[in-house]
Structures are given as structure tokens and as C-alpha cells.
Amino acid sequence: MMTCRQCTELLMDFLCEELEADHCQAIREHLASCPCCTAYLQTYQITVQLTGRLSCAEIPKEVAERLLAAMRQCHPE
Amino acid sequence: MPDSPVEPTPPPLTAERIFREYAPRVYALARRMLGNDADAEDVTQDVLLQVVRKLDSFRGESDPYTWLHRVTVNAALAHREKRARREERETHDPIDGFADNGHHANPVRPWSLPADKIALDREREQIIEKAIARLPEIYRDVYVLADVEGLTNPRIGELLNLSQSAVKSRLHRGRLLMRNALAPHFEEVQA
Questions:
Q1: Is residue B4's pLDDT more than 70?
Q2: What separation, in Å, do the N-terminal and C-terminal C-alpha atoms of chain B show?
Q3: Would you call A51 and B128 a contact, using CB atoms and an 8 Å cutoff?
């Protein structure tokens, strides 16, 4: 009988379809009877999706000015 | 015989153009790997000056972003090595956070909305960025390159000099820690 810990360890491989069939089956059976692990899988996927939507960190204005100044010194127009 | 079409001359690669086109992504990657603005600025300057000094070879790159990823990651790792303050954070393995019988030690609740319905406003982005900054470096590097930058596991292995199994293990642990860090902010509110 698979434990929640075992299910969590194999979660990434399960989602990437890189697990052998018997392990996949064991995970599906565990998920069918474990609302905690079902929620864990859902929230794991959401975490990955949200992170993929992050925008570029904004460069603070004074940092941008210093960077441009250094670049112009190295490569005068 | 008609004249062959003349290819328009590309605009010159000025400091401003290089900055506008590449600086935001370089800075974002450095900031996430190093966790603070000051170190990110140092690394970004280092990388952009390399671009400026090697403009001819940079122009010849078929994919400048592949080159920039490699140079930025190397610069960030080198900068971290030089830092006097070593990371003192203990690297906690999230797989250890289970009860002795293998069950979850704490209840796990679904999050109230699916990913595409969650508006990523500035506040939520900052929550996610802070969670990334708190990841142990060994997990953070892989997590940022995979789930923020979208690089493949083999490419991450090349950049960080890691085996594929190490990349996968660290990525998984990074995701587990991120999930745990974000849960309090996104869980369904109990009635």
C-alpha cells in the first residue's frame, strides 16, 4: 500500500509520464483514496504554472542608469 | 531581369539597444539566482560588458539567449563563490516533512482557483519571488532555470554541471518547497 510520502516522491515522474506502469497504477489508486495527496498534486501543478507566468523583474531606475553608463564607457557611440 | 530585393540593414547594436533588448532578462535571472538587487546589478554589469566587448562574436550567435543564459549563470555562480557571506540556511529536504507512518504531517487543502484563473498581480508576484529567494541555493538554481526560464533538464545539467538525476531531484524538491511556501497564500479559506 503506497504511503503519502512515497506518492510525493514519485509525483514529478508521474506527471511527466516517466514512471513504470505498475508505479503509475499504485499512484492512481492512492490518489483515488487520499484527498490530501489529490490536493497536493493539484497544488504542485498550480505552483509550476504560476511560476511560469512570472514577468521579468523590473530593473530599478538608478540601477538601469548605472548599467547604461558603464556600457557607454566601454562602447562609446 | 528584376533586381533582387535588398535586405534592409539591421540597426546598429548600440549600448542602449543591447540594454533594452537583453538587460531585463539578464537582470531577472541574476536577481532570482542571487536573491538581492546589489548582486544582481554586479552580475548584470559583468554580462552586459562582456556583450559590449565581444560585440562581433555576439552578433554571430544564432541564438543570443542561449549564450546569455550560459554567461549569466556562470557569472552568478562565480559571484556567489566570491561572496564573503556563505549561505547558512540548512538545506531541509521537503520529503522529510511526513509523519512516521508516511502520511502528510499537516492537512493539505486545495487552492481556491486553477492557475489560469489566478490573477498574477504585483502582490502575488512578490509572494512568489520571495518564496523563490528563500529556496536553498541548490534547489533555487535548478528551479529558476527550469520553471522560470523554461530550460530543458539536459540544458540545466550542462549549465550547472549536474547529472540528469541530480537536476530532476533538485527540481522536484524546489517545487515541493515552493508549493509549501505558497500554500498559505492560495489555499481555500475554511468556512
A1: no
A2: 79
A3: yes
